[in-house]
């Protein structure tokens, strides 16, 4: 029979499961496709100037997507760095909520998943804000 510490460790590992991985991959694929579409929709000179494929793959970096698309121009990189504390804070909250003990059991799974999805949405959504600056 397992002791209490071993069961707590098993519970913590089970909190990050296929649903978490699947939702991360869906967010990443959606924002990578959106990045590709937005950057590819510009004029011919814009397409030559932007790093389209690199930015689409780099969409996982959230608020740095706009800076990647503009080859790390100082103003774009600085704007992305200004978004980082907010986006990373919400992502950290989403990750931490998977491990922090919640005193009530009734809505525990709903709360954990909601915070996870919100963290991902704000992290990847930071890429849209960085595009607003990079493509202006």
Write up this protein.
With 136 residues, this protein is mainly α. The protein is 75% helix and 0% strand. It contains 7 helices and no strands. Helix 2 runs parallel beside helix 7 (108-134) and helix 6 packs antiparallel against helix 7 (108-134). The protein is elongated.
Quick one: how many beta strands? 0
List the helices and strands in order: HHHHHHH
> How much helicity do the residues have?
over 70%
For the sheet with most strands, the description reads: none
- Quickly count the helices: 7
Question: Segments where pLDDT lies below 50 for 5+ residues?
Answer: none
Rg over C-alpha atoms, rounded to the nearest angstrom: 18 Å
Shape: elongated
Question: What fraction strand?
Answer: under 5%
Distance between the termini: 62 Å
Overall pLDDT score: 85
- SS-based class: mainly alpha
Summarize the structure in short.
With 136 residues, the protein is an all-alpha fold.
Topology:
Blueprint: H1 4-15, H2 18-40, H3 44-49, H4 52-57, H5 65-69, H6 74-96, H7 108-134
From the structure above, extract its key features.
136 residues; mainly alpha; 7 helices; 75% helix; 0% strand; elongated
């Amino acid at each position: 029979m397992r002791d209490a510490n071993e069961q707590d460790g098993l519970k913590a590992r089970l909190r990050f499961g296929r649903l978490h991985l699947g939702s991360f991959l869906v967010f990443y694929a959606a924002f990578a496709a959106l990045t590709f579409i937005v950057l590819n929709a510009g004029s011919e000179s814009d397409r030559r100037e932007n790093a389209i494929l690199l930015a689409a793959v780099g969409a996982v970096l959230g608020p740095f997507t706009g800076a990647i698309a503009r080859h790390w121009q100082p103003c774009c990189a600085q704007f992305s760095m200004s978004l980082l504390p907010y986006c990373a804070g919400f992502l950290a909250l989403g990750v931490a909520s998977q491990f922090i003990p919640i005193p009530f059991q009734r809505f525990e799974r709903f709360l954990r998943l909601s915070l996870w999805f919100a963290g991902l949405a704000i992290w990847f959504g930071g890429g849209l804000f960085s595009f607003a600056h990079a493509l202006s």
